[in-house]
């Protein structure tokens, strides 16, 4: 399936020289100085004769006398026949030369080239395999900066070599726009004050509202306690009733009090549903052991008198597993709750378990995982899941503040990605409440808030994502570029028929994209919407340029190049200022399907950090295998590689530093990789062939 090393062979067949217009039947050689005529440039450009002890091809080079970062020269060249070419540029390096980015038809090729050298010299720069149709094309030389040792921004092109390696790839590209709902809230109204009749101020925190199916009366239950907040002393669930969620609410006696004999040192976050004539209240029972909080159940027939279930605890989990919420999905019940990836801490998660009888629950599974690590608190509190018009929504709190509820969107309630943000609501412990007439509300409460608040929930139909679907006989990709930049999915058809693509990369955990980790491990600053999208005329190359990395002064340029049976990806970084704190990771992450096994050329099954970069890495399922080979020296640094078996994750970390370090302003090549799919389990042969290919030229 993978091409052999034809590129290395055809490079030995270099033929005669060309000027301006290429007419060679096979290899194409274009003298740089022949492109001066007709060039469009922001600084002087000329043909320069041999100097400084260097003998250029045909005794001349194209000399671009750029004076600053941002200067560019656009050159027109002609290709005689449609083919895929191995493109090699012979550039000049010197003490006063800058850092360059080269593009063909607007799409970057290769990695940024640092032209600084201590003396004038020629440097061969491999730009990769590029499909080019017969006719004219534009080559752009852009100065993106200079190294600290360089005294200028000059650039020089001696020769451009196009070595044909095959026919034009069969690539189809189609733009898409996904519509959905943007979620927000109207103005909040204070509807219930639990301090009425009390000597001091009381608060409500996590709560639930439910309508009596017989009387139509609404019931409110929630954590309640005198101010100030004391979560480990929250031992009662408050209770109030009203004719509608808007009130007026009447205070009732406590619905439930913590029972130490039942294993409850405190009780948190009630959630009530109705099923088969009975009301089920799920809640967290706190214990002195934060690693094994208990999930409990009480039942009632009238919403006033509650009886604990003999099945308690339904299960235990940590760290501080709490905030249950139950919905009906696909013929069974699903309970969502907040937890961490390990019982003693880890990634903050929304976990779920399923049941057919509301008492016996399956083992823990993960619906959402946040990159932040921790123990108590965290950004996945108070999960609430609901469905509208074929989309499922997850609300969780509190990412950047106490009243910061984030809303995520998915086609399934069992898997949400942090990249699928659908809205934000200024609320704490939000619940979604729908009246029989369809009116839908979002609630809020919390420490120091004085009770419960209500606002209309707004779901406004709009475009929620833009991207391109790219299909070849072997590969099918969903490349999103707004509101985030990522490869949402990559499927492979090992047969090459284009009829049996099977998923190998997805967005179930982190997505496949560049990311930064600032102030801690994991993607704290993700790839946002690319500032500019450029696509080659035949659709085989897409450049995602000026990608903001979170709120840091860092952008990325990411190029994806498709042929029939492989995908090349090149990444570069631009740092324009000091980050908010130390940088722990600069990385390209791969998100495999959860069933994938991940590894590299040394070991095919890994679940740990590994120093340096591998020759190649692999992710594979029982259905398909994907191998990615690294072009040696294409990244400014190769600190670490990280593999996580649980989610099929791989991160290639150019920078990797526990505790973080400063990242000076500049332009940094982030690495070039070649992906291919396997026809067999001969991974070593496939990896070695891909590695040789991507390192040819």
Automatic annotation (TrEMBL):
Pathway: Glycan metabolism; L-arabinan degradation. Pfam families: Glyco_hydro_43 (PF04616). It comes from the Bacteria. Transmembrane segments: none annotated. Gene3D superfamilies: Galactose-binding domain-like (2.60.120.260), Glycosyl hydrolase domain, family 43 (2.115.10.20). Residues 1-24 form the signal peptide. Keywords: Glycosidase, Hydrolase, Signal. The keyword Lipid metabolism does not apply. Belongs to the glycosyl hydrolase 43 family. This is Family 43 glycosylhydrolase.
């Amino acid at each position: 399936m993978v091409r052999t090393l034809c590129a290395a062979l055809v490079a030995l067949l270099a033929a005669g020289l060309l000027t301006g217009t290429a007419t060679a039947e096979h290899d194409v050689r274009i003298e740089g100085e022949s492109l001066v005529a007709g060039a469009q440039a922001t600084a002087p450009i000329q043909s320069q004769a041999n100097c400084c002890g260097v003998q250029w091809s045909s005794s001349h080079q194209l000399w671009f006398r750029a004076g600053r970062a941002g200067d560019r020269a656009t050159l027109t060249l002609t290709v005689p026949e449609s083919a895929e070419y191995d493109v090699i540029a012979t550039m000049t390096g010197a003490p006063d030369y800058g850092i360059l980015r080269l593009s063909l038809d607007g799409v970057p090729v290769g990695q940024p080239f640092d032209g600084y050298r201590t003396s004038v010299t020629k440097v061969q720069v491999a730009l990769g395999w590029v499909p080019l149709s017969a006719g004219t094309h534009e080559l752009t030389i852009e100065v993106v900066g200079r190294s600290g040792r360089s005294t200028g921004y000059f650039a020089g092109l001696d020769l451009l070599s196009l070595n044909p390696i095959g026919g034009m790839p069969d690539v189809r590209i189609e733009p898409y726009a996904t519509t959905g709902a943007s979620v927000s809230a109207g103005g909040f109204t204070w509807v219930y004050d639990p301090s009425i009749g009390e000597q001091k101020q009381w608060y409500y925190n996590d709560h639930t509202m439910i309508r009596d199916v017989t009387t139509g009366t609404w019931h409110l239950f929630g954590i309640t306690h005198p101010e100030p907040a004391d979560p480990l002393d929250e031992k009662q669930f408050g209770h109030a009733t009203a004719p509608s969620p808007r009130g007026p609410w009447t205070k009732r006696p406590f619905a439930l009090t913590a029972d130490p004999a039942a294993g409850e040192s405190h009780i948190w976050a009630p959630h009530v549903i109705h099923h088969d004539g009975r009301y089920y209240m799920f809640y967290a029972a706190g214990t002195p052991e934060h690693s094994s909080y208990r999930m409990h159940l009480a039942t009632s027939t009238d919403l006033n008198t509650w009886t604990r279930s003999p099945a308690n605890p339904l299960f235990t989990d940590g760290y501080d597993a709490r905030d249950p919420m139950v919905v009906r999905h696909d013929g069974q019940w699903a309970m969502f709750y907040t937890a961490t990836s390990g019982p003693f801490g880890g990634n903050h998660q929304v976990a779920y378990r399923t049941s057919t009888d509301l008492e016996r629950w399956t083992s823990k599974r993960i619906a959402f995982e946040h990159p932040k690590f921790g123990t108590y608190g965290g950004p996945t509190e108070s999960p609430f899941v609901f469905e509208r018009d074929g989309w499922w929504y997850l609300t969780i709190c509190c990412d950047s503040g106490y009243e910061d509820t984030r809303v995520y969107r998915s086609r399934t309630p069992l898997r949400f990605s942090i990249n699928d943000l659908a809205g934000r609501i200024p609320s704490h412990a939000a619940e979604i409440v729908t009246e029989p007439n369809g009116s839908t509300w979002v609630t809020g409460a919390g420490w120091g808030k004085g009770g419960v608040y209500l606002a209309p929930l707004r779901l406004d139909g709009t475009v929620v994502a833009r991207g391109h679907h790219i299909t070849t006989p072997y590969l099918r990709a969903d490349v999103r570029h707004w509101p985030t930049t990522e490869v949402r999915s990559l499927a492979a058809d090992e047969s090459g028929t284009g009829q049996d693509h099977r998923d190998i990369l997805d967005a179930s955990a982190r997505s496949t994209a560049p990311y930064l980790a600032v102030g801690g491990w994991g993607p704290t600053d993700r790839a946002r919407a690319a500032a500019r999208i450029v696509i080659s005329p035949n659709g085989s190359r897409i450049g995602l340029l000026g990608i903001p990395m979170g709120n840091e002064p860092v952008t990325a340029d990411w190029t994806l190049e498709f042929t029939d049976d492989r995908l090349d990806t090149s990444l570069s970084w631009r740092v324009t200022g000091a980050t908010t704190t130390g940088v722990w990771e600069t990385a390209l992450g791969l998100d495999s399907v959860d069933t994938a096994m991940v590894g590299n050329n040394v070991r095919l099954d890994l679940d740990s950090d590994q120093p340096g970069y591998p020759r190649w890495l692999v992710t594979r399922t029982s259905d398909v295998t994907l191998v990615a080979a690294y072009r040696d020296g294409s990244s400014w640094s190769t600190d670490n590689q990280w593999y996580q078996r649980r989610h099929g994750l791989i991160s290639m970390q150019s920078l990797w530093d526990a505790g973080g370090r400063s990242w000076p302003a500049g332009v940094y090549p982030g690495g070039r990789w070649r992906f291919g799919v396997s026809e067999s389990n001969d991974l070593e042969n496939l990896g070695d062939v891909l590695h040789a290919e991507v390192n040819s030229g």
